[in-house]
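User: Sequence recovery, please. Input:
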């Protein structure tokens, strides 16, 4: 299993060297990452349902469904039966990198809040939306990266 190396994983996928057992392991690891990511986000966010939280969830779902539909309908022709076999393993290293990016972004957000407390107090909502916007761009880049990796594996 290649948890971090996307290059080695794409090579293994291209030449059919990922078994069903390995794909299941990727699914299992990806599910754990997803739960930890969701749990961490829940712990870092407010505990009550606010309109901002609902908006964040709705936009996240739009990105998820839109991204999956984009990937599915632009999947390389002749390889349609491989969609899940490629998507699930690639999701693990890409998700790990995305989570690390989110953590770095959150650290920057906290540092700005602590160092520039007077600036933060006056512009908290603006900084929050900038943070959210960058996070959405990062999330969208997950699907763009997946699209490019699918093309590389298919040889297109």
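Assistant: Recovered sequence (156 residues):
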């Amino acid at each position: 299993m290649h948890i971090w190396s996307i290059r080695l994983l794409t090579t293994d996928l291209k030449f059919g060297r990922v078994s069903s057992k390995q794909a299941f392991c990727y699914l299992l690891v990806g599910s754990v990452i997803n739960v930890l990511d969701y749990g961490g986000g829940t712990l870092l966010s407010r505990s009550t349902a606010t309109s901002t939280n609902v908006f964040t969830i709705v936009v996240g779902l739009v990105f998820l469904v839109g991204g999956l539909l984009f990937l599915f309908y632009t999947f390389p022709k002749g390889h349609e039966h491989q969609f899940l076999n490629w998507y699930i393993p690639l999701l693990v290293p890409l998700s790990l990198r995305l989570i690390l990016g989110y953590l770095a972004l959150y650290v920057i957000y906290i540092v700005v809040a602590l160092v520039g407390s007077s600036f933060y107090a006056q512009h908290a909502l603006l900084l929050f939306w900038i943070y959210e916007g960058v996070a959405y761009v990062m999330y969208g880049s997950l699907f763009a990266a997946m699209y490019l990796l699918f093309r590389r594996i298919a040889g297109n």
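The chain has one domain: 17-154.
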